[in-house]
Design the sequence.
């Protein structure tokens, strides 16, 4: 969609185009001109920028060279070509929550529809290579949150990030289910495999980034991105994190920014849950067992439906036996075969029927477990 | 001064009769071989010369011309040594019998001392010659066994050149080898299904695969017993028929891999090429377009362990023979068609480190690594494998406690019964088992009742299956029903078949996330 830019935005964005990502330099420079970007543009045209800007030689050269209307028009034209919009700090769609943080990005590039004040935004973060448990939880919790009207913020990387986005997108009634924050330019889909999810997010939510379009996904970009993920959200839900996970950077940002942190407990023997369990032990995060646990922190929000693990009806004898076994622990096909004593054909067909009825699920290694709905 | 001897040449598994013409004339001593001989044929003159002299005959100091007719087909190998030597002796009047040339077919290589050595491809040559009306063949001792299975052919064993000439002159006896009846030997299999502890699910999949001739993919962590299961599959394969054995033997005769057999292959071949195999070695090829592993596995099992480690182009080259059941190798000079109706058993780890999905030792691979590994197996390749099965991980303490299950003999009895049902059902269709069903036949023979249909529809929605997977599931359901002795395919048959298709969406569908 084509966005019109006001005169004031025009020069605020110009400064952002030239200076690139990062908060400090932008706002210091702007303060020197009492937040009047147009005045600064005029000064740059005359090659006359005061020392208070504290800008170094090469960047000054760049500012002088780009202080033309043609340059700005060129930039806007390019943005329109890429179907990317830009929101300056003062723009109406710039997220209100993000303005509160210490170092907000001066400009947010985005695709899709960016809302300044979504109903309730919750970040869902976690490991890039989650366990089966982590995957399921990320999906179910995100979906539950989005079904209650919340907006799920995530990073669109592998693992929990994109599963959270998918979970949120599964809430079909939510008009603004998810926002993804990228560590690359908004037009660069990284990892490329997430292209369909990317397209779905643009259609219903927004993909945002502080980086200029076309920026590659450099490893150094990701910590900067993480502060935006937490900055956009009122709470951060950690699904699964190892002891030294990058996810914990987001948690640190959230704690600095005064945002709530929620963590899902894992088994204490599971290295993939060490980080989350540590957060819980140290009291940094709220013990979270369901979407309800997150929502109750924000008055007025309630889970649409209280979901419990109810006894499914009309189970055959075989199905009941298998269900009882799996309630205690997940089991491989071989173990089920030993424990039940059923013939392989019988076990195979029973398992298929139970899978399709949504009672159990199969994961890699041919391990079966109870499909649990939170 | 002119002699014509009958011999035989091969092109693929079929051949053509070769007339070896030897002309000895006056002039300066010379020896020319014409008729598109390859290097081995051209070299035969040295062997022939030495063998003739060392057998006590006279080698003519005249102009010798050897023509191998038809002159426009390539002649390969050392099989023409014996016919050329006989022709030379006949042309120089050293054989008194003047009528033998019409009656006998000569095949064999000569040693310098006149001994006759074995050659590859005797069985298809003898079968071909029989088809053209010849009833008496003279073959090397090594090859007598394979030739003696052809009913109506008198097989004479040639030990040495001198012996053969004496026989033709009526001075010595060359006893025909007694024609043999093929007797399916009781084979002692090195591995039995009962040796594999646990893994009932995978064993069942192997049983279904064998019963319907389906291809099988085994996925599992290292040490879960993929290779062991694959190697025990021969023990449950259905029994060979004579026609099948003959066709297998033909291929192996050409490849020269009949040593150690009774002249006739009596068990289904099990070929397990290493994953460094080249395309030519697998599919067939080389200068002489020899049969590759897939043809040597004809009517048997081709086991590809570490499936994704095979070169991608090699694997893709398998696709067409898998559809056709035969492979045509075209080279500039030759064009050979070999049968390649094999059952593919492939085994692979779920990821490069092997532990993806393991509950004992966690996987250390990144998503990209896993995706790259799995994507070495292309979708079309995966589609051609009817049964995908995951092996259960075996923990240390499990090994001793697991029950063994049935013996191979019991399973084989069920497989044989299911195969008989199929042969009977497809009598008029020209196929033998369920895996060969075309889509038109599938519609006819794999009708589902309403309940089964509903289940399959559900499976499609939740597993995101392709249209090709649909026919695959139907065929496997057909086999499961056949194993149970049921003519109708019921919903629990489909339910079981679906289990062998769920792997694809779990692994391959997931790599994109």
Sequence:
């Amino acid at each position: 969609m084509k966005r019109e830019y006001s005169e004031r935005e025009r020069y605020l964005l110009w400064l952002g185009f030239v200076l690139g990502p990062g908060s400090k330099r932008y706002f210091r420079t702007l303060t020197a001109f009492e937040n009047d970007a147009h005045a600064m543009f005029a000064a740059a045209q005359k090659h006359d920028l005061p020392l208070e800007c504290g800008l170094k030689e090469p960047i000054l050269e760049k500012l002088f060279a780009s202080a033309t209307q043609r340059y700005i028009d060129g930039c806007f034209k390019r943005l329109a070509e890429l179907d990317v919009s830009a929101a300056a700090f003062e723009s109406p769609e710039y997220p209100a929550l993000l303005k509160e943080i210490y170092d907000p990005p001066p400009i947010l590039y985005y695709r899709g529809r960016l809302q300044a004040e979504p109903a309730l935004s919750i970040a869902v973060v976690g490991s890039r290579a989650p366990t089966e448990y982590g995957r399921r939880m990320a999906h179910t919790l995100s979906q539950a949150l989005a079904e209650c009207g919340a907006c799920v913020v995530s990073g669109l990387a592998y693992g929990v990030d994109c599963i959270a986005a998918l979970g949120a997108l599964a809430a079909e009634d939510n008009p603004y289910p998810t926002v993804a924050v990228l560590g690359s330019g908004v037009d660069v889909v990284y990892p490329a495999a997430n292209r369909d999810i990317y397209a779905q997010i643009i259609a219903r939510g927004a993909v945002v980034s502080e980086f200029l379009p076309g920026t590659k996904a450099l490893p150094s970009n990701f910590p900067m991105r993480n502060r935006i993920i937490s900055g956009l959200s009122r709470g951060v839900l950690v699904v699964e994190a190892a002891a030294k996970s990058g996810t914990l950077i987001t948690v640190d940002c959230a704690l600095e920014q005064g945002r709530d942190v929620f963590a899902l407990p894992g088994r204490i023997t599971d290295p993939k849950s060490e980080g989350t369990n540590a957060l819980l032990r140290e009291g940094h995060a709220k013990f979270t067992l369901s979407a309800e646990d997150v929502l109750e922190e924000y008055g007025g929000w309630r889970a649409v439906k209280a979901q419990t693990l109810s006894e499914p009806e009309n189970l055959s004898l075989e199905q009941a036996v298998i269900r009882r076994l799996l309630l205690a622990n997940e089991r491989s096909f071989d173990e089920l075969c030993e424990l039940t004593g059923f013939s392989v054909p019988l076990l195979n067909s029973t398992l298929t029927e139970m899978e399709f009825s949504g009672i159990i699920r199969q994961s890699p290694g041919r391990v079966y477990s109870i499909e649990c709905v939170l | 001064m002119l002699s014509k001897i009958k011999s035989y040449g091969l092109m693929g598994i079929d051949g053509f009769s070769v007339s070896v013409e030897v002309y000895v004339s006056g002039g300066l001593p010379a020896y020319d071989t014409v008729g598109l001989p390859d290097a081995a044929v051209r070299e035969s003159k040295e062997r022939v010369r030495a063998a003739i002299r060392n057998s006590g005959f006279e080698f003519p100091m005249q102009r010798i011309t050897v023509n191998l007719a038809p002159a426009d087909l390539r002649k390969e190998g050392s099989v023409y040594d014996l016919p050329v030597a006989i022709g030379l002796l006949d042309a120089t009047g050293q054989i008194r019998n003047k009528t033998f040339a019409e009656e006998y077919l000569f095949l064999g290589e000569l040693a310098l001392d006149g001994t006759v050595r074995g050659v590859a491809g005797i069985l298809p040559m003898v079968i071909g010659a029989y088809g053209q009306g010849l009833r008496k063949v003279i073959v090397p001792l090594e090859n007598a066994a394979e030739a003696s299975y052809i009913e109506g052919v008198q097989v004479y064993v040639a030990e040495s050149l001198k012996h053969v000439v004496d026989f033709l002159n009526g001075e010595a006896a060359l006893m025909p080898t007694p024609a043999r009846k093929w007797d399916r030997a009781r084979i002692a299999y090195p591995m039995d299904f009962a040796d594999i502890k646990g893994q009932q699910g995978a064993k069942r999949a192997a049983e279904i695969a064998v019963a319907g001739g389906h291809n099988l993919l085994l996925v599992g962590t290292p040490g879960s017993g993929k290779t062991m299961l694959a190697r025990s599959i021969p023990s449950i394969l259905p029994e060979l028929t004579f026609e099948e054995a003959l066709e297998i033997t033909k291929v192996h005769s050409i490849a020269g891999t009949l040593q150690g057999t009774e002249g006739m292959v009596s068990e289904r071949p099990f070929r397990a090429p290493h994953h460094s195999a080249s395309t030519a070695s697998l599919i067939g090829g080389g200068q002489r377009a020899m049969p590759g592993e897939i043809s040597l596995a004809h009517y048997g099992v081709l086991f590809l362990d570490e499936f994704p480690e095979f070169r991608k182009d090699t694997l893709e080259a398998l696709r067409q023979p898998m559809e056709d059941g035969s492979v045509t190798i075209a080279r500039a000079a030759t064009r050979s068609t070999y049968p390649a109706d094999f059952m593919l058993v492939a085994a692979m780890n779920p990821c490069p480190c092997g532990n993806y999905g393991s509950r004992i030792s966690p996987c250390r691979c990144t998503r990209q690594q896993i995706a790259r590994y799995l994507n070495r197996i292309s979708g079309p390749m995966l589609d051609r494998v009817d049964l995908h099965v995951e092996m259960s991980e075996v923990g240390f303490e499990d090994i001793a406690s697991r029950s063994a299950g049935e013996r191979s003999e019991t399973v084989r009895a069920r497989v044989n019964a299911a195969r008989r049902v199929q042969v009977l059902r497809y009598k008029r269709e020209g196929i033998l088992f369920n895996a060969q069903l075309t889509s038109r036949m599938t519609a006819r023979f794999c009708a589902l009742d309403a309940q089964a249909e509903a289940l399959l529809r559900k499976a499609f929605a939740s597993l995101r299956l392709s249209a090709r997977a649909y026919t695959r599931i139907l065929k496997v359901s057909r086999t499961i029903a056949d194993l149970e002795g049921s003519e109708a395919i019921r919903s629990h048959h489909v339910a079981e078949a679906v289990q062998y298709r769920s792997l694809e969406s779990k692994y391959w569908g997931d790599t994109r996330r």
About this structure: The first strand of chain B starts at residue 2 and ends at 11. The two ends of chain B are 81 Å apart (CA to CA). The mean pLDDT of chain B is 87.
